[in-house]
Structures are given as structure tokens and as C-alpha cells.
Amino acid sequence: MTRRHGLDWILMGAVAVLVLLGTLLVWSATSSREALTGGDSTAFLAKQLVNVAIGVVLMVMVMATDHRWLRILVPAIYAASVLGLLLVLVMGSTINGSKSWLMIGGMSIQPSEFAKLAVVVGMALLVSERAAWSRPVGAVDVVAMLAVAGVPAALILLQPDLGTMLVLSATVFGMLAVAGVPRRWVGGLLAAGVAAAALAISAGVLKQYQIDRFMAFTNPALDPRGAGYNTEQARIAVGNGGIFGQGLFDGSQTKSGFVPEQHTDFIFTVAGEELGLLGAGLLIALLGVIVWRALAIAVRAEDMFGRVAAAGIACWIGFQAFQNIGMCLGIMPVTGVPLPFVSYGGTSMFAAMLAVGVLQNIHLRSSSSTPTAFTTPTRHLVRG
Predict the structure, then answer these.
(1) What are the E-state strand segments in the chain?
(2) Integer Cα distance of 32 and 37 in angstroms
(3) CB 360 within 8 Å of CB 63
(4) Which of 59, 105, 217, 253 can pair with 333 through a Cys bridge, CB separation 3.0 to 4.6 Å?
């Protein structure tokens, strides 16, 4: 019988501090922007607090759900995610060049955020069914796993939402590795992914502004007032912060509104400018703690579903944080992905908090007496 133990309080503490820090940064980024707030300096603070409250409720609901029901609900979660992506293409709103949003009751919903979690639990369920029969992962399983990820990925690419596509791809590769897929498959899929990206560019799937962003990434000075503007202004904002920062609500770039989308995609620049290297470093450290705890939960998971799902969430949050912070520092192209737990936005917050709920659900139902849960399946985790 599974021995239950308490919550992973390190994970909960890191999430709580990160959400609190993010809420303050959102408030700072919007408080002086009258055109954005309509003259109410606390407008986005109130909205973000509502987003956090709803996210906490969703997290608790998932934590309290029996793990057997969680697995039973996976097909429905996956189907709902695909349906949401289809609805976006039919009746979605275009924002910043991507048709990624549904307007429901005055609230904007981005189904691609939920698709990340749907792919994680969907692939985990598929692998766990194979593990239940004590069979190693074979070619048929790899194709099935790629099909689970491929349907949402294709719909996301049609929006086109390149940032989410990159995050989803990194998540899938991480899950394939943890699931025990042979290395030759992982290498082949990586090569196929590069070829597919080249084909997408040549076939005109990507919009011109997305290609321009990649060109500006290689040389920000190429178009400093166009495609390279975001990166250039983000670097200036982060550089202004120095070691200790200019102080919360006192960032010169932030107050002047020079950095576009500073409360969403470029929220890290607010941390860099107003909290300095120390504050921005703390933010990165907290994200690192969340990834660490997700991997620790994966190691101690009693079944393949929990192991692969937790590892997938770690890959998702880890790569998305790297992509977001990287584009603010100019080491990654601008692709428009939110910083988990920090950026303003309901859908992003809901998806991230649901992911934490899944992690805690797995942790609560893992035996504390099995710290080496990888021992049995490791025999075929890495195969040539």
C-alpha cells in the first residue's frame, strides 16, 4: 500500500515566492502606463491577483484528485485541448501576429498553454500503459507518442505560435528520453526536427515578422527600430539595473514604457532593471528550484506515469523559462512566451498552477521509502 506523506513544501515555497514576486513586477510594469490601465494604477494588480487565486484553486483541485481519476481523465483533457486549438483557428483573435486567443466572456484564453499540459499527461499515460505490460519502448510506441504530441503541435504551428512550438518540442524530447526511447531515435528525431524547421521556413509557414526576429537575433543592430527593437530595449533595461537595481516602481525604462509587452513576455526586464542582478538572480534561482523539485518527484515516483509526467513538466517549465529569459538577454530569439508563474496572464498562470498540482499529486502518492524508484526501469532507460 502506498504510504502518503506531506506536500513538497520546498516546491510550494518556491512557487509562492515566485508568484508574489511576479505579481509585484506586473504591478510595477503597468502602474505608470495610463494608456494601458485607463488611469487605474492597480488595475493589472487586481487582475493578476484574480488569476493567481483561480490558479491556486485549480492546483488544489488537481492535488486532491485521486491519482486513478487523474489518469482516467487524461483522454478528456487531451481532447478538450485539441478542441480548443481547433476553435482558435476557426474563431480566434489575432494578437501580435498569432491567432492564438479565444475571447470568452470578456476573458482571453490561450488554448496552447493548456496543450502543453495535455501533451505531457497524454504521453505519460501512453508510456505507462506500455510499462504495465513490462515491455520496452519500441518503434510503434515512439510513433504513437509522437502522434499524441503531433496533433496539438501542428495546430499550434498553424496559428502560428513559434514560441509555444519550441517549448513543446523541447518537452517532447525530454519525455522521450525519460521514457526509455533508444538514443538512435532521439538523434533521428532531432535531425528531423531541424529539417522540418527549414522546410517550414522555405514553405512560407512562418510569417515574415517571425523570420525577421530570427535575423535580428543573430544581429540586433540589423534593424534596431524594427525587428531588433525589443531585444535592444530589453538589454538596455536589464543593464540599467546593475547589482542592486533602481528600486521597485523606479525603473527608468519601465516607467517610460520603452520595452514592449513588459508585463507579459518581457517581465524579466523589470526584474533586471528594478531589482538588479541580485533580484533577477533570485528569480532564476526560484525557477531552478521548481525544476529541481519536479525532477526529484520524477525520481521518487512509483509508476511510469508519474515519472514521465513529472519529468515532462520539468522540461516544459525549465525550457520555457530559459527561452523567456534568454530573449530578454539577447541569447535567444524573440518568440513571445511568458515567464512561468511571473508574467501577467490568466491562461499561463492556470496552466503552470495545474502543473504544480500534478506534481504534488504524484508526490503525495509516492512512497517515501522508495528514493531509488528509477532502479527497475533504468535497465532500459538508455539504450543504443
Answers:
(1) 93-95, 98-104, 107-109
(2) 8
(3) yes
(4) 217
Distance of CA 315 to CAs 181, 182, 383, Å? 16, 19, 21
Q: Which residues pair with 103 in a beta bridge?
A: 108
In the beta sheet, which residues pair with residue 109?
A: 102
The model's pLDDT over 36-76, given as tens digits with 9 standing for 90+, comes to 888 889 999 999 999 999 999 999 999 998 877 888 899 99
Given a contact cutoff of 8 angstroms between Cβ atoms, the answer to whether 164 and 142 are in contact is no
- CB-CB contact of 341 with 16 (8 Å): no
Name, in order, each residue with C-beta under 8 angstroms of 105's C-beta and a sequence gap of 6 or more: none
With H, G, I as helix, E, B as strand and everything else as coil, classify residue 51: helix
Closest Cα partner for 314 from 270, 262, 345, 358?
A: 358
Q: Which of 208, 200, 174, 203 is nearest to 189 (CA)?
A: 174
Q: What is the pLDDT of residues 192-241, one digit of tens each?
A: 777 766 676 666 666 666 666 666 666 666 656 655 777 888 888 999 99
Q: What grid cell was written down for 222?
A: 540589423
Tens of pLDDT, residue by residue over 92-143, are: 787 766 778 888 777 788 999 999 999 999 999 988 877 655 566 677 878 8
Distance CA 260, CA 272 (A): 15
Is the CB of residue 253 less than 8 Å from the CB of residue 273? Answer: yes
**The C-alpha cell of 359 is what?**
506534481
pLDDT at 369: 38
Peptide bond into 160 cis (omega under 30): yes
HEC string of 275-308 equals HHHHHHHHHHHHHHHHHHHHHHHHHHCCCHHHHH
